[in-house]
Amino acid sequence: MNGPFLAEYWQAACVEVETLEEMDAWDVVEREPEMNVLPSTWAFKCKRFPDGLIEKFKARFCAHCDKQIEGIDYFETFAPMVQWITVRLMLILECLLGLVSKQGDVTCAYLHAHLPDNERVYVEMHLGFKQYNKQGTAKVLKLKSTLYSLKQSPRAFWKFVTEKLVNCGMEQSVSLSATVSFAWFMWMICYFGKRKTNLSMIWPKLSEKKMYFLRKKAMWLDFWESNSCV
To answer: What is the DSSP letter of 181?
Structure first.
C-alpha cells in the first residue's frame, strides 16, 4: 500500500479491524490442511463531498468469495430484495392511509448477522495484521459473523434483521418476503406503521439488540413525512 494518502488509509484500516474485533467477528485459529481458507483483501475508498473536498477515508476488509465452495463454506445464498416500486407504493399508501414512516442506515450491516452452524468459513488474516505460530505459519480467521463479499452475507443479514423487527412487533408480508411492514435494500431500512409513537419505540429496542443505526433521514422521506395526509 502506497500513495499520497498512505497514513490516512492505514488509519482507516486500523479502525476497521478495531470495529471487527469489537463486534467479535472471528476467532484466530491455527491453519489445518483440510481447511478451505479464503484469500482476503482490503478495499479502500476516498469519500468526497459534492464540491470535491475529502469527507473521509474508508477501508473494508473483504474475503474472496470466488474461492468459496458450495456445500463446504456456504449453502443457501438467496436473499429477497425490495424493489423501488414497492417503496414508492408504501409512500403513496402513507399519504392515503395516514401512516408514518421512518428510515435508518445500519452501520456495519453484515457484521450483525452470524454464520449458520453448518457453515465454517476460514479467511486469511488481514494484510498488515497477520499473526504467526512458532513454526512461522500464518494463523487464519474462523469467521463468526458474515463479512462483506461472502456469498451468504445478504441472506444472513436479511434473516437477522427480519427476526429482530418481528420481535419488535412488526408483521411480515405474506406476499413480499422482503417486507416486514418495512423495506430493506442493502443496509438501509424503511418501515411504516399506523402510529408514530409505535415506530419511535423501534429504535430503542434495536439499540438494545446492539444494532448500530445512524439516525438520519433521507430527503425524500422528509418530504413525504411533511406532506403526508396525517
So the answer is: S
pLDDT of residue 5: 86
Q: Domain coordinates of the chain in residue numbers?
A: 6-227
In 115-217, where does DSSP find H-type helix? 153-167, 196-200, 202-208
Q: pLDDT tens for residues 13-38?
A: 999 898 888 888 899 999 998 899 99
Q: How many CB atoms lie within 10 A of CB 120?
A: 13
DSSP code at position 52: S
Contact status, residue 112 vs residue 146, Cβ threshold 8 Å: no
pTM over 0.85, yes/no: no
Alpha helix ranges (H) inside 35-82: none
- CB 209: neighbour CB atoms within 10 A? 13
Tell me the HSE value of 132 on the side-chain side, using a 13 A CA sphere.
6
Task: Report the C-alpha gap between 166 and 4 in whole angstroms.
Answer: 47
* Maximum pairwise Cα distance, the chain: 70
